[in-house]
Design brief:
It contains three helices and five strands, in the order E-E-H-E-H-E-H-E. By secondary structure, the chain is α/β, with parallel strands linked by helices. Strand 1 and strand 2 (21-30) form a beta hairpin.
Length: 119
Amino acid sequence: MNLTEDPAPIGGIDVTAAHGRTVVRLWGEVDGALRAEASTSMAQALASTAPIVVDATEVTFIDSSGLAFVLQLNLAAGETAQGLTLRDPHRQVLEKLDMLGMAGEFAPEPEQAPERAIA
């Protein structure tokens, strides 16, 4: 075993564009180890004018650093009029936002209408 190799990540933040929105996907353990990734992801998400969707479906753990990222992204998205919604947040995320009294600050992602083929 080579001790200089980085272990496989156990959490992460990805930013993609889909359906006219910027999707920030949180997965696995979202904690202080993702600080640099969070900064980069926030800059990417705010570089667009598209509304932001935070997909927290696959979060298994979130600490104060992860919550701070979500709260700061929400604040910044509000200042740029992009808006931010949560997509199916994992229980871990909802419980911690509720403990902070912040759960009501996030709108759920609206249902998307099914795409129709153009004839």
